[in-house]
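Table S5 (text form). Sequence records supplied for joint modeling of the two-component complex.
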Amino acid sequence: MPAAFKTLPAPPGLPEPLPEPAVADLRLEEVMGALSSSLRLTIVRKLLLESEEFDHSCHWFGLDRPKSSLTHHFKALREAGVTRQRQYGLERRSQVRIDDLNARFPGLLDLVAAWTPQP
Amino acid sequence: MPAAFKTLPAPPGLPEPLPEPAVADLRLEEVMGALSSSLRLTIVRKLLLESEEFDHSCHWFGLDRPKSSLTHHFKALREAGVTRQRQYGLERRSQVRIDDLNARFPGLLDLVAAWTPQP
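The corresponding structure-token record, covering 238 residues in total, follows.
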């Protein structure tokens, strides 16, 4: 049975999502590629298990990487269809496309939630 | 419930497996990386669903790629722990590490079996 992941209610005045693949166009090879990095697994896992808001900016994750590198990784996750990003002024925030991924790739997010970084 | 994949009995005089990660050392990010290519998904899916022998050489797959490219892809699958390769004389044959992957990443192989190449 799939785990219940943390989802929080949408705030009012939500911006439109940035461009992303439709759920029918999600490709397993692209999703796997997006999840083939421990940094990106860390991002998705933290969103799944620790979200405190509807979506989160890169600052929330506390990742020790240059902003340009983080921007690249968050974009890769969105373009593969793993996350949805919205632009709030100067800031982009991400959430996991839980329903879409569960519909197309059942069990995939459970594997991400169960993942632990290499010690 | 995990699907039952095709496994065939081991022939006598089986060579030792080529170097591979132990089941406890399998890393989700490495496995995802190995499965982030439609060619490698094709290989693993065919082994899961259509195996006719214990393991198969690259010729069996009927892939229209140069041998050096195929050698690279089969090696990438083995080094990530997705497949086990054995050397039979001049030929290497591969099988999927079904039990190991089901133990560490339940449901992953079902996603591969359900995958279809982009039309």
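Note: The interface with chain B takes residues 27-30, 32-33, 35-38, 41, 105-108, 110-112, 115, 118 of chain A (CB under 8 Å).
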